[in-house]
């Protein structure tokens, strides 16, 4: 491999091997991210053969973090963020404190200093943005209440880490490490003028506040305006470019000028852009890049990992894993329950946070450079990260298994209050319980079954489904909607349309719509893979039901027809039909001929 093109070599080797091992993992029914991590280990310095550039891989991975957080911001409003602060702030603070105490405990057992323990514990306390967001996206949870709680929690953790990263150099001397030279500090001003730890803290917080205010006051006006201006130029290329330039530019500026993390900067850029009606398209423009770069994140994590450390450090690694998987989860679970959320929500939040990633590496790197954390600490953090990321899908599976058991233990739940164990006591009757907290909606509880029969089931109420729904309503055709985005569900309810909330791919959600007694199924969702799964289910439940589906290509039309759809409408073909109709009308408005339309879909 030529050494003069390290960037190209890293991207090619990273993406190429990630593809091969991701596909193999998929073949063996293992999550593809395990394949990406293995690809990283193979191109890393700890295995023989080609070695990709580690620094470059990490920087490329940061682009993945930026685009992911930007994408999440696009689905968030300030109101959404504030609506979860009551749980996210105390949740993250308690969890960070708990994990740090456990980290200090393990450090003490390994004979490290208190300072080392603090850095180690902090590094174990913060979850990876990439892992968490991908896990939520795969489960279509970002736009649900529990998704918002997890994202809010992540943002608080992010802020805490921004503070930790600037305070550590200032505190290193006190904690038994090396006071860092002022020029290397992210808060040069603060140290040069020797404002002390409180000064550093104050300046950092002031910068974060200044950034948020600037985004909310100035960014909120300029960014949507810029987007509209570019959209009006009619150049798709320029539109794409503007979205990327804004996402990356704001994130980078936030980091360089305001000391805010890249992820947080990107989140705010997305949130501000979400005010524009073009945000839907903006999100789509960044998807391919986002996916490619977040794969590079896993490759870069794999590169840092030394497989031999598993043998030389077995017990400390197990201790580290225990803190990440069990310690953090128990803390998160208890606090979510204490706030009156259902067990299912608490389990999902715990599972999504039971891993560590990019911030942990940054803290570990800084800790070692400040002489606070021994090299062994960094190795443990790296091993803990890769293993917890591999085990994360299992954490979700474990949460799903634990749910019925925990719910049973919680006993018969009264209408408005939930009794849940919060203490170690396990005997019935001796369990410490919280009973005074109102229970929030349980998103996992199967939706109540409909009483409708002979009806039409409309899945998806977005750009397509809402138009279909309005026409069905006008024609007096009885229908219900299955939809999984919270905001759309609220809108449907306010319009008095019967709605089954949830992902239609899930058996219990689909069953609640009484498919067995329905006359017609309309799939107005854009994802043909999901639509295919639903058709299979519908055909087994009710072979008589007429199925109309939506597609975007001839291949999708064939796929859905092959699975049993009676009629598949291909979006692009219908657009052409509409255009032809317009042309024909304008050619001879008095005597409109039947337009020559492309052949109808299956
Ligand atoms: P659009 O592409 O604008 O027509 O929007 C599609 C709508 O379908 C969105 O509101 C999605 O939330 C919804 N949707 C997509 N997939 C599913 C699914 N599997 N179950 C329920 N709703 C879905």
TrEMBL record:
Keywords: Membrane, Transmembrane, Transmembrane helix, Transport
Membrane topology recorded in Swiss-Prot or TrEMBL: Multi-pass membrane protein
Superkingdom of this protein's organism: Bacteria
MF (Gene Ontology): antiporter activity
Subcellular location: Membrane
GO cellular component labels: membrane
Residue ranges crossing the lipid bilayer per the database entry: 6-26, 33-51, 57-76, 88-110, 116-137, 149-175, 195-218, 238-267, 317-341, 347-368, 380-400
GO-annotated biological processes: potassium ion transport; proton transmembrane transport
Key word Hydrolase present: no
Record Gene3D superfamilies: 1.20.1530.20, NAD(P)-binding Rossmann-like Domain
NCBIfam families xref list: PRK10669.1
Family that this chain belongs to: Belongs to the monovalent cation:proton antiporter 2 (CPA2) transporter (TC 2.A.37) family.
Name listed for the protein in its UniProt record: CPA2 family monovalent cation:H+ antiporter-2
Organism lineage string: Bacteria, Pseudomonadati, Pseudomonadota, Alphaproteobacteria, Hyphomicrobiales
